[in-house]
Structures are given as structure tokens and as C-alpha cells.
Design a protein that fits this description.
- The protein is built from three helices and no strands.
- The chain is mainly α.
- It has one domain.
- 0% of the residues are buried.
């Protein structure tokens, strides 16, 4: 694991720690980077799959979800 020196907004770090309940800055940053990668992955998957119309009523969709 490499070391990097960064200058961080102390208020942003404090607020992020409060929001996440994380205490260690390194863990906070790693968690944030993983979440960013996960979000980008979802966006790429969504773009690759595109959109399509489902010809289902809300009732039919609810029934299909219950069957899964």
C-alpha cells in the first residue's frame, strides 16, 4: 500500500466522519473511494443495458416481484 500526502478540508472530513460514523480518516477515504467506484460501475452498467419499456401494470409488477 502506498502513502500519499493530501490536504483535506477539515470541516468536510469532520462532517463525513459524523455522517458515516467512521473515526479513522484513512478508512473514511477508502470507503469513499470504494463507493465512488461502485457508483460509477452502476452508471456504466445502466448505460450498457440501456432502457426498455415494460408492458406491465403496477399490480403485475408487484406480483412478479413477490414470485422472485
Amino acid at each position: 500500500m502506498g502513502k500519499t500526502t493530501v490536504v483535506l478540508d477539515e470541516e468536510l472530513v469532520r462532517d463525513a466522519k459524523i455522517a458515516t460514523g467512521l473515526k479513522i480518516t484513512r478508512v473514511l477515504l477508502e470507503t469513499g473511494l470504494r463507493e465512488l467506484l461502485r457508483k460509477r460501475g452502476r452508471e456504466r452498467l445502466k448505460a450498457a443495458l440501456g432502457t426498455f419499456d415494460l408492458d406491465l401494470t403496477a399490480r403485475e409488477l408487484k406480483r412478479k416481484r413477490a414470485q422472485s
